[in-house]
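Predict structure. Input: Integrin beta, 792 residues.
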Amino acid sequence: AMDVLSFLYFIFVLQLWYVEIKGNFNDCQTKEDCGACIKSVSPQCAWCEDIFYNYTLKNFYKKCDLLENHEKQKCIKITNPPSSSKIEKAAQLEGETRVSPQAITVKLRPGQPVSVDIEVKTPKNFPIDLYYLMDMSTSMKEDLANIQTLGEALANELDQVTENFRLGFGLFVDKDIGPYTWFWNEKIRSDTSVQQTFSFKNRLPLNENKALFGEAVKNTKISYNVDSPEGSLEALLQVVVCEKEIGWRNKKKARRIVILTTDGTFHFSGDGLLGGFVLPSDGKCHLENNDYIGWNKFDYPSLSQIRALMVENEIVPIFATTGNTDLYNKVANFFGQASGAVAARLNNDSSNVVPLIKEAYLKIAQIVNIRADPPKGVDIKFRAKCSKGKLTLDQSFCNDVDIGEQVTFSAEMKTSDCSNAEKDLDFLIKTSFDDVSVKLQVICECPCGNTSIQNSEQCSKRGNLSCGICFCDKEKFAGRFCQCTLEEANNQTLCRVPNVESVCSGKGDCECGECICNKGMLNEFGEIDHIYGDQCQCSNTTCGRSNGGKLCGGPDRGMCDCGKCLCNANWQGNACEEQCDKGTSMCMNNDGVECSGKGTCKCNNCVCNAGYIGDLCQECVSNCPDACQDFRECVKCKVFDTSDLNKEQCELECAKWNISSFKLQDKVPEVRRCIVRDEDDCSFVFSYNKNNITGEIELLVQRERICPAEPDILAIILGVIAGIVGIGLALLLIWKLLATIQDRREFARFDKETKNAKWNTGENPIFKQATSTFQNPMYGNQPQETPEEHVS
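Output follows.
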């Protein structure tokens, strides 16, 4: 049992933590301007116009936040435009006034609903338009005789309800084609007691003359069809949509009722395909000379189509049937209570038709409904306070309302976005009797957005102030107050921890080289995690925990600062988990100064400041006052006599630092060791000890100064000459080596070409033989003579 209780307690605490977390961080805080803030679907979002909202903490609050957060954080000026409604016209419910108010103006903010009460009073002696639609198939032959006497009886009954009523009469059978009727039966066509099959006839439009109604019924003849279902829906559709031809009065000036009497079922959408009618019903009027001429073009309508048209035209159906009552009860239920549809059973001979109509009408007259067709993006839900005063959620009608009784509907309007912000959103809320005109406006901009302070002082005279935000010259300046140039704003070096890539440690925004840390949130322990530091690197919840998981053991033991516990007196440890001695005796020096004035006493031990050590923080080890320079002149004049000070000045200089003695040593200790250079460019070394009781200084001085040796000029000159000569010889040797290598390569190549050479025999082209032979041109004419030879 204890485990179960513990688990339930854990769940309870977890829920509280979730609620707290949700309150500290919400979607509102992601919005950057006033318009986006109030457009948020969260109706609790509010905008703070205060430009210096928590600036002193270097951690700005979010300008868009929950209203309750702004109030806690003491915002000076909050912008939070609510949804509202205003009644423009509201006449009292008397006389012809049946609905109040008649006109309203509604301002809607996204996500924030507004409700308006609409009062409706059922009027006395309200006009009635009653249209009687009768099945004329052969199966209704016995009923026709009783119905033919209907006119006078029905008129007498309606006179008891209202003095202003009109009656109309129409007939239906079915489509005049197979397989719905005997299309080729000559016997039926030659029978004069019946009439040719038809779909629908408007025999008598709505009329105040009761005699004409009775006459129209009496002159009616039965017709034929084959199948059991009738074309009742097709006829009913024409009665509903042919407003002018039927003679319906304005739907706000009279209650519209149609009575459908039949003994059969009905054809519906899809049945027309059997006769070849593939076009779906277009829901329009097709009466010509009061006959329906569209029967051979369109399929039968659907029940959904009939219901929608009846609701739109505010016509109430009464299904009076001699058979298939269960079917028509289901149809009436499908139409819904708001439609006022009624299904009732007739006697087999329809003898009870008049009382049935009266009973059905009285039931209809007690129904008051309300509806609206709002613009896209606007939702309306109705609540009804009916005759018994009971509030019913999501109900747009009242039943059993007595004549002259008043009912109230609450219309809750809501929009979820600003898609209609710039559009004309006028629409009507419709009741059974009159309409309410609604002028709707969607709030998507803040009032402060209509004004702007040019070159505001708060914006460093570099931008315009609107809704508490500086709009800087985007080409030149940036920052919350336009306080820096674009180049400075883009430099994020100062907003990064060394060796860390993320800006402001990933917990803030860099603005003009300065980190603006995020607002603190609750952690899993229910603590506010406050982010701070130059780079938002610190948190007050990242320290160790003790004493039952408490941060630094709880506020009684210590506090967390940038990841380190600062323990209170008498507590110590990384998480202030250890209790210690409460005294301070071990922290006092001989002068009675706690920790020598260089630390604090905790747990009877000194905690030294940075740079100091020792049980009493008496020794400085870093960032100390420069004692070496302080004692420099005294050592120079007292020990080495290299100072410009005379004897008296030297005594005063040493007395100033309370130097009491000098000791010359070959080597001084490393502790507090000083190396100082003098005017001779020599260094002298000394260390010092301080008597913590007397405060006197003892100097331990190294006996010999460390001076640089005199330079050997001759050695330097000879070294330079030797260097020059050496470099010259080296260059010469390198040149000689390279030349030798090149010669060897050339000789080797020549030798190789010589060995590979091949010589061909030939004559010298300029060589001439010692003798030449010429032919004597006359030699052919003297064949007996020997040719001459010329020797050259």
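The two ends are 155 Å apart (CA to CA).
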